[in-house]
């Protein structure tokens, strides 16, 4: 059945589709489709076909496109007093038994188009299932069941094998072929036929008006059907159109996903490198140089006049983001030859010196572990936010077509910009956290840990009666801090008044 999708497998996945010949010669009789004017006429014809099959002892498998259709057909058959079973994934416990005996003479089984339906249908029924129902079967009982199965098997073969009825065409020829393939397995006889009406979804979309006018010109009356190979080919052409449309949709989705997939490879490659390395101090140092260089460029543009420099703004930014008190104006007043590049190096040296002092206080190993944890945590959180932004971008990118722009190219361009901004934001967050982190003496840390352990040891003050009926006593101890005012969201302005988002200011320390 994959042969109908061979082009897609080859075009998208570069896979060749090969059709393996059947083990035994195919003798199934695939009859031409019957097309009726209305759905009522179609169902009447299906019921009549089922009745004929039951009369001659031929098992019938009826395929429907939905559970609703299977239940509708089941109600019609009940009204006509035709015994049948329904497979629609609603009664799992019974379905194994239904499939096992669906090949008995005159059995009628209604099934939805779920994968694997009917694969276990054995002509004449499944004698092994009958044996399994007996607690301690004797050889005589087993032999009797086998003999009865052989009679039923011959009866079904003489009646023409399993008969497949399709209540309408699916959008994909592959599913229709799967349904037909339930009959004529391993060289067994079988037959198949699809019953259609102009009310079917596929016919309404592609062939309704043209087919209806042709059927009226032929002077067809109620209950009559049109049957011709040309009609079957026309319906298959309609299915090809639907398959082509679905293929284009899947192809487009894949092309959009490839953009995110390329970014995903970069992120996970960096993440795996971080996990494998125990010392990422060199990486942190390189990031620090990039970040400081970018920050300085914002306030002191490269190759610019000194009158264009925003020295006070740079001092405030270094203090707010990196906890660095750098008297840049004093440096400039004291040294007339302190140009832009030298100033950048001096700021970086000051920041490195402050960071080195922290390392000496807490120890190299502790700081290396902290650097790695900060990098991984911020990489993961920024990547999740980036994926959400990509989804948001993708939802509305098709509107760019109204501006005579290619949505796909626009998506690639903006996705790259988002990715670049995310990486730059990640670098800034990491260096900001590492620069602003407060190092405490070991005695202070032990004191905080002791307070935390005491708080954990205090029993919770549940206000309910104990088992003996006595009310619980008030428990003295530290009470949980209550938030004053509403919770600050990550994207809300920081309450400190810096004008930055909370996640880029004090929220980083959470």
Task: Report what the structure shows.
It is built from 17 helices and seven strands. The chain has helices at 6-13, 39-56, 67-79, 92-100, 127-133, 139-159, 173-180, 201-206, 208-217, 229-276, 281-299, 311-322, 328-334, 340-362, 364-396, 407-436, 442-457; strands spanning 29-30, 34-36, 60-64, 85-87, 108-112, 162-166, 190-197. Residues 460-482 have low confidence and may be disordered. The radius of gyration is 38 Å and the shape is elongated. Helix 11 packs antiparallel against helix 12 (311-322). Strands 1, 2, 3, 4, 5, 6 and 7 form a seven-stranded parallel beta sheet that branches. It has two domains: 2-251, P-loop containing nucleotide triphosphate hydrolases (Rossmann fold, 3-Layer(aba) Sandwich); 277-439, Helical scaffold and wing domains of SecA (Orthogonal Bundle), CATH 1.10.3060. With 510 residues, it is of the alpha/beta class.
CATH topology label of the largest domain = Rossmann fold
**How many strands, what sense, and barrel or not for the largest sheet?**
7 strands, parallel
User: pLDDT average, as an integer?
Assistant: 80
- Taking all Cα atoms into account, the compactness measure Rg is 38 Å
Poorly predicted runs are: 460-482
The secondary-structure class comes to alpha/beta
The amount of helix comes to: 55-70%
**Annotation field: number of helices:** 17
Beta-strand fraction estimate: 5-15%
Topology summary:
Blueprint: H1 6-13, E1 29-30, E2 34-36, H2 39-56, E3 60-64, H3 67-79, E4 85-87, H4 92-100, E5 108-112, H5 127-133, H6 139-159, E6 162-166, H7 173-180, E7 190-197, H8 201-206, H9 208-217, H10 229-276, H11 281-299, H12 311-322, H13 328-334, H14 340-362, H15 364-396, H16 407-436, H17 442-457
Parallel strand pairs: 1-7, 2-7, 3-5, 3-6, 4-5, 6-7
């Amino acid at each position: 059945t994959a042969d109908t999708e061979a082009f897609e497998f080859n075009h998208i996945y570069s896979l060749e589709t090969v059709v393996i010949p059947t083990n035994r010669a195919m003798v199934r009789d695939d009859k031409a489709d019957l097309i009726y004017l209305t759905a009522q006429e179609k169902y009447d014809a299906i019921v009549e076909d089922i009745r004929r099959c039951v009369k001659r002892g031929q098992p019938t498998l009826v395929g429907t496109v939905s559970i609703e259709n299977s239940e509708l057909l089941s109600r019609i058959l009940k009204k006509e007093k035709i015994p049948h079973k329904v497979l629609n994934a609603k009664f799992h416990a019974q379905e194994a038994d239904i499939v096992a005996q669906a090949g008995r003479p005159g059995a009628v089984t209604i099934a939805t188009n779920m994968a694997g339906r009917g694969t276990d249908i054995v002509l004449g029924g499944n004698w092994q299932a009958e044996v399994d129902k007996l607690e301690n079967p004797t050889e005589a009982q087993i032999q009797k069941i086998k003999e009865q199965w052989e009679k039923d098997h011959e009866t079904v073969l003489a009646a023409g094998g399993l008969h497949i009825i399709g209540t309408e065409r699916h959008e994909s020829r592959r599913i229709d072929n799967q349904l037909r393939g339930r009959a004529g397995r391993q060289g067994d006889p079988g037959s198949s036929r699809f019953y259609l009406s102009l009310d079917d979804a596929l016919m309404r979309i592609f062939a309704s008006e043209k087919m209806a006018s042709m059927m009226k010109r032929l002077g067809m009356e109620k209950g009559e059907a049109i049957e011709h190979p040309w009609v079957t080919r026309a319906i298959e052409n309609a299915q090809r159109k639907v398959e082509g449309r679905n293929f284009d949709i899947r192809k487009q989705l894949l092309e959009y996903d490839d953009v995110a997939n390329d970014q995903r490879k970069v992120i996970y490659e960096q993440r795996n490198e971080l996990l494998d390395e125990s010392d990422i101090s060199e990486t942190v140092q390189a990031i620090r140089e990039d970040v400081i260089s970018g920050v300085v460029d914002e306030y002191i543009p490269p190759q610019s006049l000194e009158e264009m420099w925003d020295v006070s703004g740079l001092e405030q930014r270094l203090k707010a983001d990196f906890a660095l008190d750098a008297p840049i104006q004093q440096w400039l007043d004291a040294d007339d030859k302190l140009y832009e590049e030298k100033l950048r190096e001096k700021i970086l040296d000051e920041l490195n010196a402050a960071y080195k002092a922290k390392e000496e206080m807490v120890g190299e190993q502790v700081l290396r572990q902290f650097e790695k944890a900060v990098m991984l945590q911020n990489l993961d959180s920024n990547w999740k936010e980036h994926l959400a932004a990509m989804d948001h971008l993708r939802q509305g990118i098709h509107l760019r077509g109204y501006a005579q722009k290619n949505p796909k190219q626009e998506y690639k361009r903006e996705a790259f910009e988002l990715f670049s901004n995310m990486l730059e934001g990640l670098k800034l967050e990491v260096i900001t956290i590492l620069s602003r982190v407060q190092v405490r003496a070991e005695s202070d840390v032990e004191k905080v840990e002791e307070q935390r352990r005491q708080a954990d040891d205090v029993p919770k003050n549940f206000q309910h009666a104990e088992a003996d009926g006595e009310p619980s006593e008030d428990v003295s101890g530290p009470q949980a801090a209550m938030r004053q005012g509403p919770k600050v969201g990550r994207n809300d302005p920081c309450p400190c008044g810096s004008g930055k988002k909370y996640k880029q200011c004090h929220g980083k320390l959470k």
